[in-house]
## 1
Amino acid sequence: MKIICIGRNYADHTDELQNARPDEPVIFIKPDTAIAQSNLPFFIPEFSNNIHHEVEVLVKINRIGKHIQSKFAHKYYNEIGLGIDFTARDLQQKLKSKGLPWEKAKAFDGSAVVGKWFDKSTFGDLSTIPFALYKNGKVVQKADTSLMLWNIDEIIAHVSQFFTLKIGDVLFTGTPAGVSAVEKNDKLEGFINEQKAFSVTVK
Ligand code: MG
């Protein structure tokens, strides 16, 4: 399986990092080795001193497809979740400044937290799903899916022009504002639609 991530999909986060607002979705991929082992802590890797949390709504693909039209995209997923796109911000800035790809900063082992999955029927309207990330009991990121620049179906349509989507692939749909560095012993808890999706301790 592969993990396809969307960058700069919330205007408030794009602005907080002083990035230009994109005119089409920004895409990058993480390998399956990026998936964090559940029930294990997140270990800060030695190559970074500035690992940021990015809480994101996740979508699990349940049918193979390519060139999927937006109006049919809803047939390609049944489950929605919540996760973290851990980012080595210092390394990412260095790579970006040289015009190089972000992979080392985004796709390293353990960088993709994939929380609990929920049947999409439990959400009602998918365009207004609330979600939040708490760090040590305090809310640090809070948004809802109406703030996405491209919604789930539009993301699937765009991504599938370039990459065949396969059963079990996971989409990370971008993070809202509020990203910040994690420190040892931080506890990160994610909630979607008031339901707890994950709890991760940083080590
Ligand atoms: Mg992200």
## 2
Amino acid sequence: MIEITDLLFKYSGSDFALQVKRLVIDSAEAVAVVGPSGSGKTTLLNLLAGVLLPDEGQVRVGTQQVSTLHDAARRDFRIKQLGMVFQNFELLEYLSVLDNILLPLRIGAGLKVNKAARVRARDLAGHVGIADKLQRYPGQLSQGERQRVAVSRALLLQPSLILADEPTGNLDPSNKTLVLDLLLDYARTHAATLVTVTHDRELLQRFDRVVDFSELNQWQGVT
Ligand code: ADP
Ligand code: MG
């Protein structure tokens, strides 16, 4: 499902580099990505999502060579196949919770908000305990509630790949379990692939596999 080969990525004006010879994640696999802060976990998710492009090597997701798609095709791929939970949630402050969850439908070409989509949005919100907050605005939510809006939005279009960047990072223990249950249940019932960055060691046993970033990045500091 996901295959990274001979990847090299650098930010311009930064000493950081990410070098991955090979990483394969099977279809429907649930993988936890761990590693110290600043080790490149968010960068890796952005490379998988086609938000960042590698300087060398290939990133394949399903049948798509993400690294060679043009801008419009990459955007379309992101909206239709990926569910992303961002580290900072990326909620739009001027939209209600319901409209934030429905956002992928508003920005995807050829997609529109209909009754079934609203039902699905409510259903997802119900699963994570925010069904009574759909008419609020993000500024009226706690961090944990914002997190759960972000997770609901990521699952709206039934993606085949979910990329979640510390999705349980701001939650208390019971909400951590709730959010992880939702992501894992979704992945298992839809045979979707789940890649989750996490610092929650106690949650690792619930994943099929753990990818440790300190072993993954082979960058030695020479060009
Ligand atoms: P993590 O998610 O593991 O904490 P990141 O992938 O966010 O790490 O960052 C990896 C490294 O790249 C860090 O040293 C960070 O400072 C640097 N970095 C992140 N984003 C940028 C950017 N846009 N420009 C330059 N350097 C960046
Ligand atoms: Mg990060």
